[in-house]
Amino acid sequence: MSDFAIPHVAPLRFVKRRIEATTEDAIVEIGFDDVPSLGMLIEAATQSSSGILNDEINGRIGFLVTLKNIKLLQTPYTTTFQVKIHLDLKADDLRYLSFTIYDDNAPVLTGSFVIVLQ
């Protein structure tokens, strides 16, 4: 069984494995067939939010509502990264999350987003 309860399949499923997780944070390995675009990295970050341990979400689908403070810190040149994601706030069916994507130990992309659960 997968660590990630998301409907995505290859080639649009970018999450590979959960490295560690709590009910508020997760570190997730993401990977791509080719060097990713900015949009692919953002999609991978949103998929990584399913790596946070939370039983109340099981069986529900999240939809991206808002992106905020997206900053590309360096151009990606590889195909495997780690996402550190944090649940900042949950209010009813809304989840506010922040993330940083790393290539080795160097930050590549930071930002935050909101998803709504259905």
Automatic annotation (TrEMBL):
<protein>
    <submittedName>
        <fullName>Type I restriction-modification system, restriction subunit R</fullName>
        <ecNumber>3.1.21.3</ecNumber>
    </submittedName>
</protein>
<keyword id="KW-0378">Hydrolase</keyword>
<dbReference type="GO" id="GO:0009035">
    <property type="term" value="F:type I site-specific deoxyribonuclease activity"/>
</dbReference>
